[in-house]
Amino acid sequence: MGLLFGFTIACYIVSSLGYQGYILFQKRLVYRISNIVLWVGFICHTGVMITQYLESGHIPVYSLYETLSTFGWAVIGVFLILQTKFHLMVLGALVAPLATLAVIIASILPRPQVELAPFFQGLWRTVHLGTLVLGNAAFAIACLVGILYLIQERTIKDKKQGFFFRRLPSLKLLDSTGYASLIVGFPLLTFGIISGIVYAQMVRGQFWSWDPREIFAVITWLVYAALLHERLAVGWRGKRAAIMTIVGFLVLLFTFFLFFLG
Amino acid sequence: MAGKCHIVAIGLNHKTAPVEVRERLAFSKEDTEKVLEAMQQNAYVDEIALFSTCNRVEFLVTTPDPANAVEAVKDFMAEFKTTPRHVFESALYVRSGDDATKHIFCVASSLDSMVVGEPQILGQLKESYAEACDHGTCGVILNRLMHRSFSVAKRVRTETGIGDHAVSISYAAVELGRKIFAELDDKAVLLLGAGEMAELAVEHLVNNRARPIFVANRTFERGVELAERFGGTAIRFEEIRDYLKEVDIVISSTGAQQYVLVRDDFKGLMRARKNRPLFFIDIAVPRDIDPEINRVSNVYVYDIDDLKNAIQENIDERKQAAVKGERIVDAAVIQFRNWFQGLEVVPTIVGLREKMEQIRQKELKKTFGSLDSLSDEDRAAIDTLTAALVNKILHNPTVFLKKNANKDKKSIYLEITRKLFNLDDFEGTDSE
Questions:
Q1: Contact between A157 and B309 using a beta-carbon 8 Å cutoff
Q2: What is the pLDDT of residue A236?
Q3: Does the predicted interface ipTM exceed a cut of 0.90?
Q4: Could you tell me the residue range of the domain that residue B214 belongs to?
């Protein structure tokens, strides 16, 4: 494991703890420091990925190791971008640990030599996997926001103005953040699947083979499509939307591991 | 030496006096002007500020003769308010010295308020101080005391979080609304029935830019009246269900014996609302809104007990914060005492001499260190010379400060002296 990658992981761990500390003690300074540390980690991580790209000549999304690391990077990236608009300060307490976990697992995974495909095929493969990783990151955040929504909804319904009620933001803010994440994730997922089909056609000469992995990919897409459709058509929001977002991500995770481990 | 100066606080508040007494002794803004002008003439009063709200009346004076000053204030109150002394005398408290300082710090920090931690009091105190400043009745001491009390109040507020959470029903409703809608701007409100608490809650929502406001009352005329007050629209009671599709917050306070809205009323309603959240605040007893409705998705129903529970926790937390706040106040009292004691003639003169002596010794050491050729006699002569210089320089200021003729402005001269020679080391860190 490279020095820079180690430093990245250290930054992520520190900022994860910092965000937890912010939830507990509600000191803005702790939040600001965690945010800065996360930015530093993210920049280092970006550096790691650029180095990897220069060394291997491909975007690091081929092996599970590369994908997990890139996934962690994308989750942080999407979070940092969302943060500039929504100021969901407590979200960091879930996002940072998730990304940290992904990166730590990546760091202990074996690093197989990836055989490079011919240029044109490689391009499609990169686009296919790259968009999917970015989409997954957005959906991961949507899922975490959904969890926060469910907690806050419960405290308000149960009339418990305690720990979470004060610390979590309003239902409206959580709902819109989740929605924004879905809106970002869905086109990426769609494009990822389409480019996958194109890639399959190129490599195998057959774009659809009733592989369970393919079937699950389509199921994932359908879950999110249904959720978004209901949202737009009848204003599906709140608790049910949050649950669907979480379910959608679980299906997505399953599909993801099916592809890499199956 | 001029007579020692004392800080005295004389007052009464919601704990010591019933409302009948408080309302008789409350001083309006016009009253205050007259009081300040009149009391300024009093021989026993040097500086004065008067602070009067619906919960308290406080006279803050500095005086060379506390006993007589207190009598003067009491006489003045009795005369000005044409109220015999026995009516209010037992309700009055008199605090002097550190106790007076602590009292005013506690008042400013809202630790002495009926609702501990309520934020209005600081603003009211600042207004009273501005009033006293306009009339020139605050001098060095009260200026300092008031400014200190403002900064102590600010510290208490930020460091203990004492005012952070709602402790009144209507405020709790607003806080809850914010947790659901994020912002109350342009959230439509429907008021069912009438009643003081419900109207207060609507007012709070209006202040938070909630609009439009609809009012439904069994008696349409009463509804129109209320709607006018909030700049809203009156609707017929039978129209409620239609308006449930439009509004975001419903405040209910009717005298109905049965539920005004039941769960069946919500069939299809949420779909028509596109699932936008709906928040019910049911202040009525017996309740207007079927509690079962709370189980409908995206609908939140809070009744009066729920709101009371919500604020009870906050009240308990404020009590804990108040203990912390008192610690901050105690520390500030000691700091203020140090400054105040320095304002006496003798400590100032001693301080001045010590400062000069320090400078003299330091310079002597420097000079002697660089001039090895000096004999012991030379050294003694230089030592005598510098000591004489210091004495001569300090002679006039010392005489001036000790002179009784300067009595009136004593504290000003002392303050200036201390500042000119930077005798208060803590001054730098102790900024306001």
A1: no
A2: 82
A3: no
A4: 169-311
Looking at B115, B140, B164, the residue that finishes a domain is B164
> End of a domain among B292, B311, B330?
B311
On chain B, the residues whose CB falls within 8 A of the CB of A156 are 176, 179-180, 300
Residue bearing the bigger pLDDT, B163 or A133: A133
For residue B106, indicate whether it is catalytic.
Answer: no
When CB atoms are compared, the residue of A156, A234, A238 closest to B179 is A156
- The contacts of residue A253 (CB under 8 Å, 6+ apart) are none
pLDDT of residue B360: 93
- Asked which of A85, A113, A141 is the last residue of a domain, the reply is A113
Q: How far apart are CA B211 and CA B187, in angstroms?
A: 5
Q: Which of A79, A113, A147 is the last residue before a domain boundary?
A: A113
Residue A205 has phi, psi (to 5 degrees) of 70, 15
Mean pLDDT over the full length of chain A: 89
Instruction: Assess contact for A20 and A27: CB atoms under 8 A.
Output: no
**The two structure tokens encoding residue B5:** 């100066």
Distance from CA of A260 to the nearest CA of B (A): 39
Cis peptide before B212 (omega within 30 of 0): yes
pLDDT tier at B11 (50, 70, 90 boundaries)? very high
pLDDT digits (tens, 9 = 90+) for A217-257: 999 999 999 999 988 888 888 888 999 999 999 999 999 88
Helices (H), A205-238: 212-234
Total domains in chain A come to 2
Same domain? For A10 and A90 the reply is yes
Closest in A157, A173, A235 to B276, CB measured: A235
| CB contacts, 8 Å: B165 with chain A | 166
Compare all CA atoms of chain A with the CA of B268 and give the residue at the minimum distance: A234
Q: What is the pLDDT of residue B163?
A: 79
Task: Kindly give the interhelix angle for B120-134 and B140-160, rounded to the nearest 10 degrees.
Answer: 170
**A201: domain range?**
117-262
Using an 8 Å CB-CB cutoff, list chain A residues near B313: 161-162
How confident is the model over A16-61, as pLDDT tens digits?
999 999 988 888 899 999 999 999 999 999 999 999 888 887 788 8
| Residue of B275, B295, B306 with shortest CB distance to A235 | B275
Task: Please indicate, yes or no, if residue B316 is contained in any of the structural domains.
Answer: no
Best B165, B180, B275, B312 member to test A by mutation, with max A CBs in 10 Å, is B275
